[in-house]
Amino acid sequence: MITNRDTLIAAMAGGITVPFAQYAPNAPGSGSGYATSGWVLGGRKGDTPELGNPVHCTNTTPGALPIPAATTGNSWYVGALSWHASNTNAFHLYDRLAHARVDSTLTTAQSIGLTRPARSTTAHGVYAWLEVHNPAPTGVSVPAITVSYTNSDGVAGRTGLLGAQGTFTYNLNANNPGFSVPMTMQGGDRGVASVQTLTISTTALATTPGLVLYLARTLSTFNNGLQSGFGVQLGFYDLGGIALGTNPCLSFNANASSTSIMHASARMIQG
């Protein structure tokens, strides 16, 4: 474990730099909760799980940033992160814990069965996200989707919302697969420990295959200060010094104000 300045300095010296990049089209409804998924549109096409087969994601899951397993007794950390975007952009770095395929044709409660892997020692800060892996018909509105989950305090039967919320809806675009949006948790909850079922309220998504629900532990969220062409550099303490376990599945989302080219690199360290 990295517990002081000396262990941090030693870990940084022995770290590895992992580059990644993304072409990010403007997310439809940018600024209203949308994100473009790096899992779908990044430089490494991510895995789409099979229906009825939820998966614990690791460093070897197709789409994860390529890092080896940490050596025995050690954990991975993000030691530093450098990021640049050609346009105004928000960036969300996360550990993808698990994902499951959603049957878009059903309007009754369907079993999801998403749980967290052993490396996830706390559910605080874990969110559920809906992700579209295939293009959708232009202008399809995502209907209200309810999710039954257990929160980070172990309380089951909680209800989360995806899709239509309040007075606005999310409109999919045939030219923009990779749409991703976080679930709104029930009031007072601080994280999602597991997901039991999901219910789509209408048949609006019946022709939209490739819907995926995933659990993600947020590592960092930031933007480039509304300045096109500017970058961000964050260090170990800026990123919270979060121990990620031996085999994290790192990925990212972005919310671009217009079509954007992003470049980033993470300095991965272990200790």
Q: Indicate the structural class.
A: mainly beta
- Strand adjacency order, main sheet: 2-12-7-14-5-16
Tally of extended strands? 17
Overall mean confidence score, pLDDT: 81
Q: Which oligomeric form is depicted?
A: single chain
Poorly predicted segments: 27-32
The best one-word shape is: globular
Order of SSEs? HEEHEEEEEEEEEEEEEEE
Strand content: 35-45%
Please, how many domains? 1
Radius of gyration: 18 Å
Summed up:
The chain has helices spanning 5-13, 38-41, and strands at residues 16-24, 35-37, 55-56, 76-85, 89-102, 110-114, 126-132, 141-142, 145-151, 158-162, 170-171, 179-182, 192-200, 211-223, 231-235, 250-256, 260-270. It has 271 residues and is mostly beta strands. It starts with a helix and ends with a strand.
List keywords for this structure.
271 residues, mainly beta, six-stranded antiparallel β-barrel, four-stranded antiparallel β-sheet, 2 helices, 17 strands, globular
What does the model show?
5% of the residues lie in helices and 42% in strands. By secondary structure, it is mainly beta. The chain has one domain. It has a six-stranded antiparallel beta barrel.
Question: Which secondary structure elements does this structure contain, and how are they paired or packed?
Answer:
Layout: H1 5-13, E1 16-24, E2 35-37, H2 38-41, E3 55-56, E4 76-85, E5 89-102, E6 110-114, E7 126-132, E8 141-142, E9 145-151, E10 158-162, E11 170-171, E12 179-182, E13 192-200, E14 211-223, E15 231-235, E16 250-256, E17 260-270
Antiparallel strand pairs: 1-17, 2-12, 2-16, 3-5, 4-15, 4-17, 5-14, 5-16, 6-13, 7-12, 7-14, 8-11, 9-10, 9-13
